[in-house]
Amino acid sequence: MIENDYLLAWSAYLAAALGCLLVWFRLTGWMWRYVREPLRVLVLVLLFSPTVVDPGKEQLAPAIAISAMDLLLGVGNNAWRAIADLSMYGLILFVLYLLFVAVRWPVERWWQGRQRPAAAIADDEPTLREMMARDDQDFADTRYDARGDRRLRIDPRL
Fold it and tell me: Which of 97, 103, 99, 100 lies closest to 38 in space, CA to CA?
């Protein structure tokens, strides 16, 4: 395989893997955040982790493809190296993800604490039910005048 074919094959694989990753993002969009994000990290590791095919040539290939071909077809002996690379990249990425979560969590709590006073001000406003009850008290019964005598005319309520 010449250098141009190698780069063309990697370009095609990266485009396809990016498409698969975007589809996975859409498939996991409905999930709870702390389940969705580790699943996305897992698929990111599976799709984008390379491994060495032949140490003499220093050519790389997707680790998931190498491990699948070696285990299913029995064509080579690179399966354990590919699985080791997958686990190493997975461990590194999950540690980075946990570090990101550990930084994001206090920042989100601080941000929610900042937003809470605005919500408390909005809670002081009367609800629609309270405003309607107050209006009903103002116009309680129009069939009686201020002295309690019955009126002959009934005004419609608006």
Answer: 97
Q: Could you tell me the two tokens for 58?
A: 């220093």
Find out whether 63 and 50 touch, Cβ atoms under 8 Å: yes
Judged on CB neighbours under 10 Å (0-12, 13-18, 19+), 88 is middle
Buried b / exposed e over 23-46, threshold 16 CB at 10 Å, is ebeeebeeeeeeeeeeebbebbbb
Of 31, 56, 60, 62, which is closest to residue 44 (Cα–Cα)? 62
Residues in contact with 21: Cβ distance below 8 Å, sequence separation at least 6, in sequence order: 43, 44, 47, 48
Measured CA to CA, the distance from residue 61 to residue 39 in angstroms comes to: 23
Q: Which amino acid is at 73?
A: L
Question: Can you spell out the DSSP letters for 43-83?
Answer: HHHHHH-EEEEETTTTEEEEHHHHHHHHHHH---S-HHHHH
Among 63, 65, 71, 70, which Cα is nearest to 93's?
Answer: 63
Per-residue model confidence as pLDDT tens digits over 79-125: 899 999 999 999 999 999 999 999 999 999 999 888 876 656 566 67
Query: Nearest to residue 86, comparing CAs of 70, 100, 65?
Result: 65
